Amino acid sequence: MKISESNWFEVEEYLKTDDRAVLALGSTEQHAYLSLSVDSILSERVAADAAAPLGVPVFPAVAYGLTPYFMGFPGSVSLKLATYAALVRDILDSLYATGFRRILIVNGHGGNSPVQPVCAEWMEAHEGARCRFHDWWKAPKTWATVQEIDPVASHASWMENFPWTRLPGRTLPDAQKPFVPFEKLRDRNAAGVRELIGDGNYGGVYQKPDADTDRLWAVAVEETRALLDGDWA
């Protein structure tokens, strides 16, 4: 049940029997040869695929996040932490005000993780509220599947390359890029990060057969659905 494909009458009817909802968090940032919207596309799609059999509403992905280290790449957009925290809090407040009580946040961007304390603070301030923060790509079963397929995988590599994130007509390198030395990323500004990582891939081959990514996607959807449909007591 995508909110973008629903009207308010239908949501009101849903809330008579259920109070769950899914909020996807993404970003707009460089992903080498893939779409700048990879994180938003994937978080909303895995949320929608997971929620579909359950009929739980999925809200549109928040398309901007925390990505100051990629501001050396044109097209990337980053919010300040205070701005992002306020934005997520306002969204959660709105969901609570209209009747939702159990919120699964499906996060598609690692840089958004600092906002997790907002979820904890929000639950403390709202009676009966529950909020789960789910980094879909590094959840235990999903990450184990990545490691089984190819342990050399990271940002903008094959593990984010799906038919819905790749761009038609773009030629990808036919090579395995060595892992970026992450310890050198932590003390560099955006220009330094771009100098270190080059095209934006953090390490790994750029594309795998669709059979591999289909397998990964199925695990990710199942793992996300289990959180949404599991015990909220």
UniProtKB/TrEMBL annotation:
What cofactor requirement does the entry state?
Answer: Zn(2+)
Swiss-Prot/TrEMBL keywords = Hydrolase, Metal-binding, Zinc
Sorted alphabetically, which SUPFAM superfamilies does this protein's record hold?
A: Creatininase (SSF102215)
Question: Could you state a single Gene Ontology molecular function term?
Answer: metal ion binding
Q: Pfam families from the xrefs?
A: Creatininase
Q: Which family does it belong to?
A: Belongs to the creatininase superfamily.
Q: What is this protein called?
A: Creatinine amidohydrolase
The lineage, from the top, is: Bacteria, Pseudomonadati, Pseudomonadota, Alphaproteobacteria, Rhodobacterales
